[in-house]
Amino acid sequence: MTDSLFNTIIFLLILKTCEILNRIRQIIRSVKTPKIGLHELDNEGLSIMGSTGGDKVYHGLYNEGATCYLNSVLQVLFMTKVFREALECNSEEKYIVDFKLKRLFTTLMENETYTKDILLTLGIENVHEQCDAAEYFEKILSMVNPKASKLFKGELRHSTTCSNGHITSNEIGPFWTLPLSMADPLDSSNTYCVNDGFCDFFKSSTVSGENQMYCDDCEMKADATIECRMEVYPDILTLLLKRFEFDYYTMTYVKINRSVEVPHTLQTEEHDYELYAIVDHFGTLRGGHYTAKIKSFEDHNWYVFRDSYVKKLCFQPNSKRTERSNSAYLLVYKKSLVKNEHTTNQIPVNPGDEVAGEPVEIKTSEDDDPDDAGLEEHGHASVSVPEDSQWDLWERVDVEAHIYLCITPT
Ligand SMILES: [Zn+2]
């Protein structure tokens, strides 16, 4: 072999080795770092850091094509303690989704995992087609056992009353998500306030003139008042911000990219609700991406879930403020207190549970008089109880900027 041939072979070998090393480096990088793109920062543009010691470690779901819409709602359901418990209670075989979800959740506690099984059960054949997260959220809830689905199911009463006081229609219908219209014909650039939108949803309206309704009792057309009331308040209330609307000018569906103000506490006539999950939609109608931000019921920190990528939010949302978002699509709230003073509803409290966004500590002290333990100022959010007793917290009462927790023995 001549020297020059030998040198050439050595040169080619080195070149090949470099190529292989480069490829290995690329593979390692692609495994370690998530793909950074438009959707890799959360909607407030906050940077995200990894979990630190003591935080819970949550796992992601692989994207099977364009299945981020499903992944985001599956993570919301996984992170809903009462939902997981309701699945565990069921042993009836006819609720196939229960078993698929239980299996998925069991794996998800330990590892990131695939969703092929659930996709098949939900009848999703084309995994590359972008679908609506809300649609599949509702589909899952309609397929799980009644105890699990009831958690999310509310009821609305729609009634119409003529100007002479005759009730011309009165119907009750269930809902999984409460759709709030975001279209503002006057100004689409202003911020949409979820609290106002929620109140507007229940505002009565009057029809008159050529829109008058026929009343059987009056035997003629008459002005009428249309009302909508929440008849059954679900334990978990999901608001759907209608970002996808049909535009009659272009005769196509368009996405409304309005900024929204999301309250951490939603006050309704009978209950207060605490925000614990947001499903975000980024991008356009067809080329969008879904992610979820969820507050853990275990360590009370907010995490971001983007398919297989899960991290604790570096800047935790402040529950005393509202969230500003350009991407919020589904807002998931859990019931936090009953407003009616004379209610018999009892909310059992265990250490680590949350009441109105505050983690409850149960301090055990034999010196404390259990009668005094009934009232605690907000901010401490702790209740002192004798060591061996079981107590229930049954009410939180707001009085002149002070919040009292009332407890009673079980
Ligand atoms: Zn009438």
Automatic annotation (TrEMBL):
Q: What is the lineage of its organism?
A: Eukaryota, Metazoa, Chordata, Craniata, Vertebrata
**What name has this protein been given in UniProt?**
Uncharacterized protein
